[in-house]
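queue> pop job 88
queue> type: inverse folding (structure -> sequence)
queue> payload:
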């Protein structure tokens, strides 16, 4: 016997949970399928998560729409950042901006991923029309009217629309044989949390050097930041094998005058970095969102925001289809969603490739061009404001 739903979401991470919570506000019966969903149930007090995200204005408004923003703020683990500082270690290029110079209260928020997922999960648990299945999906099939998802315990879920929100190595995407365009950034990201000698002062910092990019995302503790160090794979492996003091010394050599000596407060994790772009975001009774549809370099912190924008537009599209009594699973009814999300993602992918290519290596011509270009932007208030507005999604 099949269990019937309107929407079945494979993947209970940030984007999948947000989509379920937003859809719960309408007359829909929703299933979330994730074998590890219950890991979001606990949030150790005072223990900082290893991964954090830069949340822009659009994502913040989406959290408010869902109904979790006040809870996030009440946790005292949301850190506004009101300044950015970008510089080149072995060059003259630099860029800085402060929110007050453009009439903004801040430039965004840094929030640990596990904090966001915890409050989304707590919200979802209170929704009578959201049902959790903590089993792996092992098969999916489709007919004209429904999508069918078979779980490891042989349960079969039937839905009008299946949403793949199951990450960069999406099982749903593979199940439907959707091709993916990939480009290796030839970088791995070393991610951890550090305590810095100098307080971050609500400033997000990023330093470029010939072999990589180092970013400090300020956390809710004045001297703690999420560190994202993207560098060549062999160097990333070396950085994770170093003892803590040697790691800190290498970090100090590249960033010391800005943040001072750093002390590790979390283990180091390594993630290979690839640009991914699914050839199709939609098929009959199927939509891909978040990392299942696309991944980008973390240098601008926009990856998770792209996922939340996918989620928000998909929810809005589904609502419009329900209001006009149209089928939520038909490709023709989802084409506008796909067009808009593919367009925005391609713009961001192109921008990230251009920036990474421009700062990669120590070529004299590139060094001259990036110095001229970045400093020109830094001295143009109008251009800086436009870039900030785009990044904040205002």
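queue> result:
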């Amino acid at each position: 016997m099949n269990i019937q739903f309107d929407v079945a979401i494979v993947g209970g991470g940030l984007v999948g949970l947000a989509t379920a919570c937003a859809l719960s506000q309408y007359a829909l019966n929703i299933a979330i399928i994730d074998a590890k969903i219950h890991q979001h149930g606990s949030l150790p007090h005072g223990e900082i998560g290893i991964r954090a995200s830069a949340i822009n204005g659009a994502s913040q408004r989406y959290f408010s729409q869902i109904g979790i923003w006040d809870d996030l703020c009440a946790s005292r683990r949301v850190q506004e950042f009101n300044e950015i500082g970008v510089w080149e270690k072995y060059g003259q290029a630099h860029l800085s901006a402060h929110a007050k110079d453009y009439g903004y209260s801040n430039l965004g928020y840094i929030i640990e991923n596990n904090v966001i997922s915890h409050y989304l999960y707590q919200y979802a648990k209170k929704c009578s029309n959201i049902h959790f299945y903590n089993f792996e999906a092992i098969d999916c099939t489709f007919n004209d009217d429904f999508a069918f998802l078979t779980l490891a315990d042989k349960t079969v879920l039937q839905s009008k629309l299946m949403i793949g929100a199951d990450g960069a190595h999406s099982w749903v995407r593979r199940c439907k044989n959707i091709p993916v365009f990939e480009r290796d950034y030839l970088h791995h990201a070393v991610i951890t949390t550090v305590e810095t000698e100098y307080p971050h002062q609500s400033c997000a910092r990023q330093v470029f050097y010939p072999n990589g990019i180092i970013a400090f995302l300020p956390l809710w503790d004045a001297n703690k930041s999420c560190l994202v160090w993207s560098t060549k794979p062999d160097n990333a492996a070396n950085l994770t094998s170093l003892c803590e003091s040697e790691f800190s010394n290498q970090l100090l050599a590249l960033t010391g005058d800005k943040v001072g000596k750093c002390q590790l407060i979390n283990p180091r994790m390594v993630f290979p970095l690839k640009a991914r772009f699914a050839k199709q975001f939609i098929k009959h009774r199927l939509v891909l969102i978040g990392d299942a549809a696309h991944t980008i370099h973390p240098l601008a912190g926009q990856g998770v925001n792209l996922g939340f924008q996918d989620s928000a537009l998909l929810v809005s599209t589904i609502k419009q289809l329900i209001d006009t009594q149209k089928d939520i699973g038909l490709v023709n009814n989802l084409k506008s969603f796909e067009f808009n999300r593919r367009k925005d993602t391609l713009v961001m992918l192109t921008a990230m490739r251009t920036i990474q290519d421009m700062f990669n290596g120590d070529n004299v011509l590139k060094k001259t061009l990036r110095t001229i270009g970045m400093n020109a932007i830094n001295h143009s208030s109008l251009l800086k404001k436009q870039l900030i507005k785009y990044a904040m999604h205002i």
